[in-house]
Design brief:
The complex is a heterodimer of chains A (626) and B (361). With 626 residues, chain A is an all-alpha fold. Chain A has a single domain, classed as Up-down Bundle (Cytochrome C Oxidase, Chain A), CATH 1.20.210.10. Chain A is 59% helix and 1% strand. Chain A has helices at 28-33, 38-68, 78-81, 93-129, 137-157, 187-216, 229-260, 284-318, 325-338, 354-366, 368-382, 391-413, 416-422, 426-456, 462-488, 508-538, 604-615; strands spanning 271-272, 275-276. In chain A, helix 4 (93-129) runs antiparallel to helix 5 and helix 4 (93-129) runs parallel beside helix 6. Chain A starts with 27 loop residues before the first helix and ends in an 11-residue tail after the last helix. Chain B has ten helices and ten strands. Chain B has a domain at 162-352: Cupredoxins -  blue copper proteins (Immunoglobulin-like), CATH 2.60.40.420. Chain B is 43% helix and 15% strand. By secondary structure, chain B is of the alpha+beta class. In chain B, the strands form two sheets. A five-stranded mixed beta sheet of chain B has the order 3-2-1-5-8, with no helix packed on it. Chain B has a five-stranded mixed beta sheet with strand order 4-10-9-6-7, with helices on one face. The longest helix of chain B has 34 residues, at 76-109. Classes of the chains: A mainly alpha (626), B alpha+beta (361). At the A-B interface, helix 4, strand 1, helix 8, helix 9 and helix 10 of A face helix 1, helix 2, helix 4, helix 5 and strand 7 of B.
Chain lengths: 626, 361
């Protein structure tokens, strides 16, 4: 029975300092609030991220109400929205833009960057590489609390009388620099910039920690070639973040100067509100370059962890090695490098020199090759597997489907000539919501379902998980697939309504469908929320390794304490994907099982490694096994 | 009313919770906790259902509603980019459909069977090389055809192209045409903008005198047009959907886009069977509260002669705002009046009138 909790280590000696630290020290504040344990910090990130996801999702449903039901009377929202409703009970056009802006900011940064990397890099890096904790627990704690502070400020900005930042999540100046241009560019924008500056600090503190930990704290035998793909993904993600977030910081800083100290980095020749501003010589295009120098890598900061998580989950639940481990690592490395040299494909028609447009077209379309390789590898991993549709597996398959559907439209948008028509239309909205938003969100969900047993010692309800998956999967497709048609028809993004235009007068039916699907998709998340909260307290008690998985985190006790392993950290002998190895007794061989114990399944070259294991003096402790 | 709805919602949620609890208890009693969920096969079938259902819906909508999402194209380069678009569509849809079918088929075919072992396949270098090289070749072809089109589109405009200036501001567009006398747009300076001089015309430049303003974009059919685009306050973006044309308007710099309209408004009315058809221009860069309302009407004349006739019928900006003659350097005033088409006999009256222009330099 799964309800029986096995503690193989309880009788072994506690010679390690960390081993018996956990249950004896600390109070509520040091255990749950200002805690330096990576697992607690991961849960803090997860729960904050989930709160943000609900807020971000709710904002999107609000503006979908406007787009799907432009005639509807929303007076019943008066208690929540107050002055942001017009007297006729419609959403104020400027508030509409605020909703769009905050939805983007929240989802990209607070949910899919902090919520995803923050949760899983923190939780899995030490557990999967065999470390007691992060390299610096203190920095790790700071990382969360900077994020928390940033969250508080961003959240506060939703409630100020002039409204939050409203110039789009890309906050292009001059719109974002001039309070005369729109209300949201006043205090709301200031708070946005302050919150993002703190967010960047948090992200850097976290990223430096992840990199250091992966490089320095791997357990004995855990060479880079034996790292699970999750860790590779988190590692590359952290490097991308550390290299690109400072550029956004610089961009934000210069914008702060332009806004508050009269500089002209981004401003030139502006006549607004009946007066000509003194600023001359700046360039709004400069901001776009700086913004997208982070903005594009950001796409991969969001996506790579999700891809890493699903690689692990798909291999585990297909009971097969991930197909092409080296190709998977190679393609992630290639994507990580290329992500720095494609940023200007967001700017083909901004007035940037068209020659640059050619270069960036070339570089952008190259990135499709490693992406395609990843999809083929996922599909081939399923091939001849023995697939268990756990909720985590369902969400992972959903991710591959979104990555394919959304990735393919990138081939259109990356081609500058085709992008002329599609830029800033709903085609783009469909593209990035599928390939980045939904794919990453599904990766995050998959991760929660898969590692919940290790996080909370209990299982999430799989049936509710299945219902949650199907409603969300179909819902997301119904929301974003129709947008391709709307986009090909030329409908521009960030439009409060299209009725001013004859050209954009159609598709009321599709827009309504999209809005209804959005409401259903958001509602389905409450099934998950219920499942999550209920299972923390009442869920089925998990076994130490409920998915029969190979990676090191499953060798810890059901609820690992501070220091993760009560005894010695296990030594690693093999890669993490020995699933269904011919000759083996079980259909999985965990990473800490030496080859000398599995003569029946060893491949010829592995038999030679047996000798090394012996010479190495790595004595196999029976209690480390299951 | 809302109380009843609220109670209803609470009741439904309570029932759902009860069902969930009972289900939990039943599965506990049955003791079927370990191993693979009984829903595994159901999920495998749902995967197939989803794959078939979604592909059918995709195919049906794409063909049945083609005319509602495919805008007719009305420019020379637009035909090229449309062609590229549909070539890319053909290639990617084939790849998309194949991969989708294969993936969902695998999830179904290889669903869990107790006692079966998955195959231990770690990699296959031949296969991997094939699926790396094929996309690379296909992408290279797409890139090069795309870049050739891009270079043509963004290349310099021909010397005799019609030049029109478009100016974006919160939340309207204006167009400035070079007058028929010199066919040159005069200089402008943002510091000279005021309530009447909305272009910021620099009246010391002779070329400004016959420039005229239009609140509708008039284009000749079959002649190259070069749009000179700028913005006064924040970013805007010129979007002419039927002409497959988009270019940002940026304060502090000029952007430009050249194209050849191939269908007049009348042609398009005939083609679409809609006698009320009108071309439109929209803004596609978020610019504030009224972003969605920046509609600018567009009219394409049947012939270049018609277009020139329309040009000749327009009044110069200076003629509409004769007060600004006072800003024209004294030695150029007569030339200005001739160019702007202001009758000479009104000169004294204009110059003697009280200064209504608030000087702002």
């Amino acid at each position: 029975m799964a309800t029986i909790d096995i503690h193989p280590h309880t009788t072994t000696e506690h010679h390690d300092d960390h081993g018996h630290e956990h249950e004896h020290h600390g109070n509520f504040w040091t255990n749950y609030v200002f805690c330096e344990d990576h697992k607690v910090i991961a849960k803090q990130f997860l729960i904050t991220g989930m709160a943000w996801a609900l807020i971000g999702g709710t904002l999107s449903v609000l503006f979908r109400l406007q787009l799907g039901f432009p005639e509807a009377d929303l007076s019943w929202l008066k208690p929540i929205l107050g002055g942001w409703l017009t007297p006729e009970g419609k959403i104020d056009p400027e508030f509409y833009l605020a909703l769009v802006t905050m939805h983007g900011t929240i989802m990209v940064f607070f949910v899919l960057t902090a919520g995803l990397s923050g949760t899983f890099s923190n939780f899995l890096i030490p557990l999967q590489i065999g470390a007691r904790d992060m390299a610096s627990g203190f920095m790790n704690m700071l990382s969360y609390w900077f994020f928390f502070l940033s969250s508080v400020i961003m959240f506060t900005s939703l409630f100020i009388s002039t409204g939050p930042a409203s110039g789009g999540w890309v906050i292009y100046p001059p719109l974002s620099a001039l309070p005369q241009a729109m209300q949201g560019s006043g205090l709301g924008m200031t708070l946005w910039l302050v919150a993002m500056a703190l967010f960047i600090v948090s992200s850097l503190l976290g990223g430096i920690n992840y990199i250091t930990t992966v490089i320095n704290l791997r357990t004995k035998g855990m060479s880079f070639t034996k790292l699970p793909l999750t860790i590779w993904a988190f590692f590359f993600t952290a490097i991308i973040g550390v290299l690109s977030f400072p550029v956004l910081f610089a961009a934000a800083l210069l914008l702060i100067f332009d806004r508050s100290f009269g500089t002209s980095f981004y401003l030139s020749d502006i006549y607004i509100g009946g007066e000509a501003l003194p600023n001359q010589g700046g360039s709004p295009i400069l901001f776009q370059h700086l913004f997208w120098f982070l903005g594009h890598p950001e796409v991969y900061i969001v996506l790579l962890p999700a891809l890493g998580i699903t690689s692990e989950i798909i291999a585990t639940n297909s009971r097969k090695p991930i197909f092409g481990y080296k190709a998977m690592v190679g393609s992630m490395l290639f994507i990580a490098i290329l992500s720095f040299v494609v940023w200007a494909h967001h700017m083909f028609v901004t007035g940037m020199n068209p020659f640059l447009g050619s270069i960036f077209t070339l570089l952008t379309l190259i990135i499709a090759v490693p992406s395609a390789v990843k999809i083929f590898n996922y599909v081939t991993t399923l091939w001849k597997g023995n697939i268990r549709f756990t909720a985590a597996m369902l969400f992972s398959i959903g991710l591959v489907s979104f990555f394919l559907t959304g990735g393919i439209t990138g081939i259109f948008l990356g081609n500058s000539a085709i992008d002329i028509q599609l830029h800033d239309t709903y085609f783009v909205v469909a593209h990035f919501h599928l390939v980045m938003g939904s794919a990453s969100f599904f990766g995050m969900m998959a991760g929660v379902y898969h590692w919940f047993p290790k996080m909370f010692g209990r299982m999430l309800n799989e049936k509710l998980g299945t219902i949650h998956f199907w409603l969300t999967f179909v819902g997301v497709y119904l929301v974003f697939f129709p947008m391709h048609y709307i986009g090909i028809a030329g409908f521009p993004r960030r439009y409060y309504s299209w009725t001013n235009f004859e050209t954009f007068s159609g598709f009321a039916d599709l827009n309504m469908l999209v809005s209804v699907a959005a409401i259903i998709t958001l509602s389905a998340q409450f099934i998950f929320l219920f499942n999550f909260i209920y299972s923390i307290f009442r869920g089925k008690v998990a076994s130490a390794n409920p998915w029969n998985s190979n990676t090191l985190e499953w060798t810890t006790p059901r609820s690992p304490g501070h220091g993760n392993w009560p005894g010695e950290i296990p030594t690693v002998y093999r890669w993490p994907y020995d699933y269904s190895k011919p000759g083996a007794k079980d259909d999985f061989i965990p990473q800490h099982i030496p080859y000398s114990e599995t003569p029946e399944s060893n491949l010829p070259h592995e038999n030679e490694l047996v000798k090394l294991e012996m010479n190495d003096g790595a004595i196999v402790v029976e209690s480390n096994k299951h | 009313m809302s109380l009843i709805i609220g109670l209803g919602v609470v009741l439904v949620l309570a029932i759902l919770y009860l069902i969930f609890r009972i289900g939990n208890l039943v599965s506990l009693v049955k003791g079927k906790e370990d191993g693979v969920s009984s829903w595994n096969t159901v999920n495998a079938y749902l995967m197939m259902l989803f794959m078939i259902g979604s592909l059918v819906a995709f195919t049906w909508y794409s063909f049945a509603h083609f005319d509602s999402y495919n805008l007719p194209v009305a420019s020379e380069h637009g035909a090229v980019t449309d062609y590229l678009f549909w070539i890319t569509m053909a290639i990617t849809v084939v790849a998309f459909v194949i991969i989708t079918i294969v993936m969902f088929w695998f999830t179904f075919k290889y669903r869990y069977v107790e006692g079966r072992r998955a195959s231990f396949i770690a990699d296959d270098h031949k296969l991997e090389i094939v699926w790396t090289v094929i996309p690379a070749i296909v992408l290279a072809l797409l890139i090069f055809s795309g870049l050739r089109a891009w270079n043509d589109i963004t290349g310099p405009a021909s010397k005799d192209a019609v030049v029109i200036e478009l100016i974006g501001q919160q939340f309207l567009w204006t167009a400035r045409y070079p007058g028929v006398k010199d066919s040159q747009l005069g200089k402008h300076n943002y510091q000279m903008i005021d309530a009447s001089n909305e272009f910021g015309l620099d009246l010391s430049d002779k070329n400004t005198y016959d420039d005229f303003k239009s609140l509708e974009l008039h284009l000749p059919k079959g002649k190259e047009v070069q749009l000179m685009i700028r913005a006064k306050d924040v970013l805007h973006s010129v979007f002419l959907p039927h002409f497959r044309l988009k270019m940002d308007a940026v304060p502090g710099m000029h952007t430009t886009f050249k194209f050849i309209p191939t269908k007049s408004t009348a042609d398009m009315r005939a083609e679409t069977g809609n006698p009320n058809f009108n071309y439109e221009m929209a803004c596609t860069e978020i610019c504030g509260r009224g972003h969605f309302s920046m509609r600018f009407p567009v009219f394409v004349h049947d012939t270049v002669e018609d277009y020139e006739k329309w040009m000749a019928s327009q009044e110069a900006w200076l003629k509409q705002n004769p007060d600004y003659l006072q800003r024209v350097p004294a030695e150029l005033r007569e030339a200005a009046m001739i160019k702007a088409g202001i009758p000479m006999d009104s000169k004294e009256a204009i110059l003697a009138s009280p200064v209504t222009v608030t000087a702002k330099f």
